[in-house]
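Quarterly update, task 2.4: magnesium ion-bound model.
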Amino acid sequence: AAKEGGRSTYRFYRWEMTRAVRDRLLLEQRMRQGLDMGHFEVWFQPRVDMRTRRIIGAEGLVRWRDPERGLISPVEFIPLAERSSLIHKLGDTVIRQTVAHADRWHAAGLPFGKLSINVATPQIERGDLASELQGILADTRVPPSALEIEVTESVFMADAERARTTLNGIRALGLSIAIDDFGTGYSSLAYLKTLPVNHLKIDRAFVRDLPDEANDAAIVRAIISMSRSLGFLVTAEGIETPAQFAFLENEGCQFGQGYLFYKPMPAAEFEVLLMEAAREAATAPAG
Ligand code: C2E
Ligand code: MG
Ligand code: MG
Ligand code: MG
């Protein structure tokens, strides 16, 4: 009987695995079709100067608008895309769309600051991202300094030298490079200083329990003060409450992003904010 039970458990396990594989292949296939049909769109979450609360840029965040299932979050499909070659096609779509928006806003004189593009580790590892960006930018009038690439610390875990070469190439074009979700990996600030990185984004996990959680407060304080003395720009992610904001502002954090200011929004909505900002700047009293 024990043997029988073991065998059916095994069979059940096999069946479960098969289903997981099938679901994954199905989702991949749907993603591929969605990409071909233009169902992926880049939204923007404004980033603000903590002192003035003015918009100084925005992060591009991809969404999948599936006709049957509605709007799908990137947490549902980025990990899957990263395990297949789809991440390259998706990444290309995101870059082209973001640059196209930047080109239009630049031509219209809208003060969008800097737009950042999230890039997955396999996109860095492939080695041709700098030349891809160069090719896309060549067809536009977007100043490269108006764009930023966000990578996570995991790019330095696999092949650090390869990553360094790719990032050097991107930096040489004039784009900024930010480390996303900083603090969750194992890279030290001293090590980052040897890389072509100029911006750190403190992970939301360290911001969430501020200002009460003493360990998080100490970590955030250390990241802000060290990155300031090393010359990095610093952004705190996931600011939701006035108390979090007050703590971060007081510690000298330069930039902030979070629901307290703005949630991610479609490009058209961000454009309206930019038009308002441009109008305000035009009507502001001189001096
Ligand atoms: P991320 O790059 O760290 O982006 C920040 C995430 O935090 C976004 O989630 C954003 O909507 C969310 N967020 C911002 N402020 C707040 C806040 O105050 N409270 C809370 N609870 N959340 C906040 P989203 O848009 O779901 O994106 C999740 C992740 O998916 C991103 O994390 C990034 O790792 C990945 N991702 C998004 N777009 C792309 C893309 O175009 N390419 C790649 N490779 N990854 C992307
Ligand atoms: Mg990001
Ligand atoms: Mg992040
Ligand atoms: Mg993240």
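Highlight for this quarter: The chain has a mean pLDDT of 92.
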